[in-house]
Design brief:
alpha+beta, 14 helices, Butyryl-Coa Dehydrogenase, subunit A, domain 1, Butyryl-CoA Dehydrogenase, subunit A, domain 3, 4-stranded mixed sheet, single chain, 8 strands, Butyryl-CoA Dehydrogenase, subunit A, domain 2, 4-stranded antiparallel sheet
């Protein structure tokens, strides 16, 4: 079957993001000092509609094709990587919830289309079966943007239907049932406020749980039963482009800073830096890496959405390629940033120079497990050689 592409009311997320870049750039230091995205940034992104990119349309969202969302997030990162990262994870979670029972999305956005959802994805916690759901307790880390969230989504092990063996499930819990533990003392992406979530005996009704494996392998079933192609994407294979996208904006932003620096400074011998062949080559190589990263991101996202519009499930090699490219685009952007930062010399290490923040942020982004090149590259290599990927999340 072919799914009709939904009208997006001509909402231009990229233009909305571009308008905010200079504003959030002015607040980048304040966001880092607060170790959480400052409230003014949250309000501005909310007003601009950028938190609704992945929210279902019938609940007031834009439900944009993913290539539009990731490009908007990459633009935001030109101004502030932490703000862009948090915007990306909020939209990642919105798309994921769109795969749940529809009642879950209605619980979250039915009365508040601007509701925000943070998450802790490392499986943890303990559960006990009760009437109509589960009692959940535990601690989950790395919950970016949790300070501003209305709901939290965590992963724990539950028995799968028809199978007694526990498998990872997403569970949605209202903010009132969660304590935030401030353990976020880090060197990069400082403003994401990715703190611990502590939950004690919270009730999670069945419709607020959903199998993580189903979000990855249930595309065919969702294509047959859901209206929107966005929520039919295989989650772990495609949606983490939301996390990779900030690396592109960070690299683009640092390239501009570096070029401005080179144009306006001289060497110790009085020669303009722009006349040095080494500087020219560093800029050429770095800009080529950044361009390649963007091409990979947009190609994969567009092709994934095209498959969903046609009602076609993505093949395993297509899914593995997306995983590969998420990690490789971050690798390319990190190479570009690290090269340009080193070339800038000692001036880049001063805390009043935005270069040092971008240097720290890109290396923090590359440390994320979903963007690890060794893991993603190995998965693609195995699949391309006809072997089992040995990763149930692909």
């Amino acid at each position: 079957m072919t799914v009709t592409r939904l009208d997006t009311n001509d909402y231009d997320a990229v233009s909305a993001a571009d308008k905010l870049v200079p504003i959030i750039q002015q607040r980048a230091e304040a966001t880092e000092d607060a170790r959480s995205v400052v409230k003014k940034n949250i309000e501005d992104l909310k007003s601009a509609g950028l938190f609704r990119m992945g929210v279902p349309k019938y609940l007031g969202g834009h439900e944009l094709p993913i290539e539009q969302s990731v490009e908007a997030i990459s633009r935001l990162a030109r101004g502030c990587a932490s703000t862009a990262w948090v915007c990306g994870v909020y939209n990642d979670h919105a798309i994921t919830i769109g795969m749940f029972d529809s009642q879950a999305a209605e619980d979250i956005w039915g009365n508040n289309p601007d509701a925000l959802v943070s998450a802790g994805f490392n499986p943890a916690g303990e559960t006990k079966r009760t009437d109509g759901g589960w009692n959940l307790s535990g601690t989950w880390g790395w919950s970016s943007g949790c300070d501003h969230a209305n709901w939290l989504m965590v992963v724990t092990f539950l028995p799968a239907e028809g199978n007694d063996k526990p498998t990872p499930y997403f569970c949605l819990v209202p903010r009132s049932d969660v304590k935030i533990e401030d353990n976020w003392q880090v060197m990069g992406l400082v403003g994401t406020g990715s703190k611990n979530l502590v939950i004690e005996n919270a009730f999670v009704p069945d419709h607020l749980t959903f199998s993580m494996i189903e979000t990855n392998n249930g595309s065919a079933n969702r294509l047959m039963n859901k209206v929107s192609p966005l929520f039919c994407l295989p989650r772990t294979s495609v949606i983490p482009f939301m996390l990779a996208a900030p690396s592109l904006g960070v690299a683009e932003g640092l390239l501009k800073l570096h070029m401005d620096y080179v144009k306006n400074h001289q060497s110790m011998g009085g020669v303009s830096l722009s006349e040095l062949g080494t500087m020219q080559m560093h800029i050429a190589e770095s800009s080529a890496e950044i361009d390649a990263a963007k091409i990979l991101m947009l190609r994969d996202c567009r092709e994934a959405m095209a498959s969903m519009y046609k009602g076609q499930e993505m093949t395993m090699i297509e899914r593995a390629r997306c995983r590969r490219d998420q990690a490789y685009m971050v690798t390319l952007c990190r190479r570009a940033v690290n090269r340009l930062f080193t070339t800038a010399g000692g001036s880049g290490i001063f805390l009043n120079n935005d270069m040092q923040r971008k240097f720290r942020d890109i290396n923090a982004i590359s440390a994320h497990m979903a963007l690890n090149w060794d893991i993603a590259g190995s998965i693609y290599g195995r699949v391309s050689l006809g072997l089992d990927p040995k990763d149930p999340r692909i």
